[in-house]
Each structure stands twice: as structure tokens, then as C-alpha cells.
Specification:
hpI Integrase, Chain A; single chain; five-stranded mixed sheet; alpha+beta; elongated
């Protein structure tokens, strides 16, 4: 963390370090005082110290800049240092008096979070707000941020787990963690009270992918697990075949995005996570699923229309259908899918892992995933290599479709080694 002698000019013009979600500039003049700058540009003051009696160092919020200028922040930090010297924990005296950020309730913080312009662009923000308002806020929404504890959050997820809704409990925990972490970055509270709590429901985020046996079981059980929605079945199938996101698949436009004659799907930048258009070569397996969906969709432009016929099927409806199918009970301990719980993103991870297992090089996997952090990293790829890798992507996805067909049919598939 940088240490500098803070000045009014420096504070007004300082920027976060490249790649950091938030940067702390510690004041060389006043020990413990730091200027915190979030990636959105918000500036706030914090004071870091070791509490009386020992223990890990803690950080508390003093206020926001420019509402609190540098001189006032230094005065508050000096006051806190004097209290520490007298054996007093300064956090009590540093709390805002009634109307400050710490006096905000969790419900108010959730309202700020969903109204944040950056968050409003998330396709999932409506589903996040719904989950929290149904599951969390009736129980703990009234609690002030400075009084919120790990036990409060665990009460919420424990109640969901008693309904045997493990997937829902995991999502609610993840949503609360994201809201509170955002609150810390924006100086609404000094620390995330649930940092370090393991996710409930037996999930390990970021590692789950389906093995061959699970893929085969999932494929076979889709018609019964999601019997009410042929569209959801096909969207899941396309997620495994193509490695693309569920939201991108559910919004597929047959007129503007698909060229089935040349077996191409072009996702416009307005519909991708990174805002860059993305070309997805389609295997025969993918085309077969898409053509079946178009036959059922009617004359509208969307491959997966909503029930009203006014637009595409919302990805939130797909995730809700999957979440309902994931519910467990004594007769069905592994849910309707008959395998260990998985998330929508795990399907994408399954495909990309499968591509790696059959020898597809990482750079091509990055191109298929539309991960520009891989495909446009460094000066060479960002500015000089303008090749689209379309033929390489097509070869990889066709190879994966062949393997997937073998997995579904129950054939023993031996991973290729050293293929380039």
C-alpha cells in the first residue's frame, strides 16, 4: 500500500492503482490515516489501528471526501490515536451520530446497491434484488450496518436450508456478501461483517464442473427435470455445446444474429458481458438444437421467446426454473437432476474444461469464451494480432461436439494429449 505525505492537491487528483478495485494511500504525516479510492473514483477516509488488548489490526471509516477535507480527517485520526494511548477503542467515538453511513440499515444499503448505475447494467440485478427482498430483508433488513453480525446472516441462510433449498441459500449468501463488500468500498461501513464465512449448501464457487458421467445423467434427465420448459432444456444443452453464457443464449435473435447456412452466431456487443461482439461457430449439434427451438418458436425474431411473445425469454426465468429443479427433499436428495448441485456458470466451466482436456490451446479457449483478458493481453495480441481465429474456434467446438456426443451415448472417451 502506497505511503505518501497527503496534500489537498494530491487527494483531489489521486487515482486508484491499475487493476485494483480500491487503493489505500497512507498518510506519512498521520499514522493510521489513509485515503481510500475505489475503482469508481469514490474517495473516503479510513483509520487503521490495533485495538487495545491486542488482536488483529482493524480499519474504521472516518468519512467521505470532499465532505470531510484532509485537515478534518487528520484531526479525527489524531483524536483516535490519543484514545488508543489511553487504552480506549476509538471506534465508538468515531461512529457517525445517527445519520451517518453506519446508521444505515441493511435494507437501505440494498436499495443503494441496486440503484448504483454500474450495478443497474447487470442483467442479474433484478433477480438479486428479488432474492434479497424475499429471503433476507424481512428478517434482517431493519438491522443497522454497524450492528449487523455473522449470526444475522447465518439466520437467513439457515432458514433457507431448512426448506432444503441449498442453491437458493448459496445465492442469497453470495448476494449479501457482494452488497456488503460494495458498502465497504463506498464507505457505508468499515468492514464486511461476513467476510470469511464459507458459503452454505456445500458449494465451492469457482471450481465446480461436471464430469462425463454427470454430463450424461444431466442430458438424459432434462426432459423430466424441466418438463414444463422445452426452452430451458435447449438453453442448457446449448450452454454445454457452445460454452456461452445462459443470458446470451436465451436472448438469441434468429434474424440479427444467426446465419445457419454458414453455421455462425454473432452476438452483438450490447449483449455480451465485456461489450465486445463475439462470433461463435456452430457445430452440427448446436444447429440441430437451434433449428428445433426455431420450429417451436413461431414467426417471431427470438429463438427462445417469452410466454407473452413480446421479447426473448429472460435469463432470470431460466435460472429460477433451474433453482426449482435443484430443490431437494428426502425422496430426492440430489434434486431432480440426480447429480451434485451446479450453477449456470458451471456449465460454461464444464465446456471450457472439456476443451482443455481434448488438447485445445488456452488462447483458442479464451477466444471461444470471449475472454479478452486472454486474447488481447499484452502489446502483441492487443495491437498487432488481428486474426479472428474463426477456423480454429470452429475446429475446437466441432471436436468438443464429437466428444460430447460420445459422452451422451455412453461411449468411453479417451482425452487427446498434445493436440495443437
Amino acid at each position: 500500500m502506497p505511503r505518501v505525505t497527503l496534500t489537498d492537491r494530491f487527494v483531489a487528483g489521486a487515482k486508484p492503482a491499475d487493476g485494483d478495485r480500491q487503493t489505500y494511500y497512507f498518510d506519512a504525516k498521520t499514522p493510521g490515516l489513509a485515503l481510500r479510492i475505489s475503482e469508481s473514483g469514490h474517495r473516503g477516509w479510513t483509520f487503521q489501528f490495533s485495538p487495545p488488548g491486542g488482536g488483529s489490526r482493524v480499519r474504521t471509516t472516518l468519512g467521505s471526501y470532499p465532505a470531510m477535507p484532509l485537515a478534518s480527517a487528520r484531526a479525527k485520526a489524531e483524536q483516535a490515536r490519543h484514545e488508543l494511548q489511553d487504552g480506549i477503542d476509538p471506534r465508538a467515538s468515531l461512529k457517525p451520530n445517527g445519520a451517518g453511513a453506519a446508521a444505515m440499515t441493511l435494507a437501505q444499503l440494498v436499495g443503494r446497491y441496486v440503484a448504483d448505475p454500474d450495478k443497474a447494467e447487470l442483467r442479474s440485478i433484478g433477480e438479486i434484488e428479488r432474492r434479497l427482498r424475499v429471503n433476507a430483508l424481512p428478517l434482517i433488513g431493519h438491522i443497522r450496518l454497524d450492528q449487523l453480525t455473522k449470526r444475522d446472516v447465518k439466520d437467513v441462510t439457515d432458514k433457507i436450508l431448512r426448506r432444503e433449498a441449498r442453491t437458493q441459500a448459496w445465492h442469497v449468501h453470495k448476494d449479501l456478501h457482494a452488497v456488503l463488500a460494495w458498502g465497504v468500498r463506498n464507505d457505508f461501513l468499515g468492514a464486511n461483517p461476513i467476510a470469511g464465512i464459507g458459503a452454505p449448501g456445500g458449494f465451492t464457487a469457482g471450481e465446480r464442473h461436471l464430469n462425463d458421467d454427470e454430463i450424461r445423467k444431466l442430458w438424459a434427465v432434462l426432459p423430466t427435470a424441466l418438463a414444463k420448459s422445452k426452452a430451458c432444456q435447449r438453453i442448457i444443452q446449448l450452454a454445454v455445446i457452445t460454452g456461452q453464457r445462459l443470458g446470451e443464449i436465451s436472448g438469441m435473435n434468429r434474424h440479427d444474429e444467426l446465419n445457419l447456412k454458414h453455421k455462425l452466431w454473432v452476438i452483438p456487443g450490447a449483449r455480451t458481458k465485456n461489450k465486445h461482439s463475439h462470433v461463435v461457430p456452430l457445430s452440427d449439434m448446436a444447429v440441430e438444437v437451434i433449428e428445433a427451438a426455431i420450429a417451436d418458436a413461431g414467426k417471431g425474431p427470438f429463438v427462445f421467446p417469452n410466454e407473452e411473445g413480446t421479447g426473448p425469454l429472460a435469463s432470470a426465468r431460466v435460472t429460477r426454473a433451474i433453482a426449482r429443479a435443484h430443490e431437494t427433499n428426502r425422496e430426492r436428495p440430489l434434486s431432480r437432476f440426480g447429480i451434485a448441485p451446479w450453477s449456470c456458470h458451471d456449465l460454461r466451466r464444464t465446456t471450457l474444461t472439456g476443451l482443455a482436456q481434448i488438447g485445445v490451446v488456452p488462447h483458442i479457449i479464451g477466444c471461444i469464451a470471449n475472454h479478452r483478458s486472454v486474447t488481447k493481453t499484452g502489446v502483441t495480441f492487443a495491437h498487432y494480432v488481428q486474426h479472428s481465429y474463426e477456423s480454429e474456434k470452429r475446429a475446437a467446438l466441432e471436436l468438443w461436439a464429437d466428444r460430447l456426443s460420445g459422452i451422451i451415448a455412453g461411449a468411453k472417451v479417451v482425452p487427446l494429449r498434445g493436440k495443437r
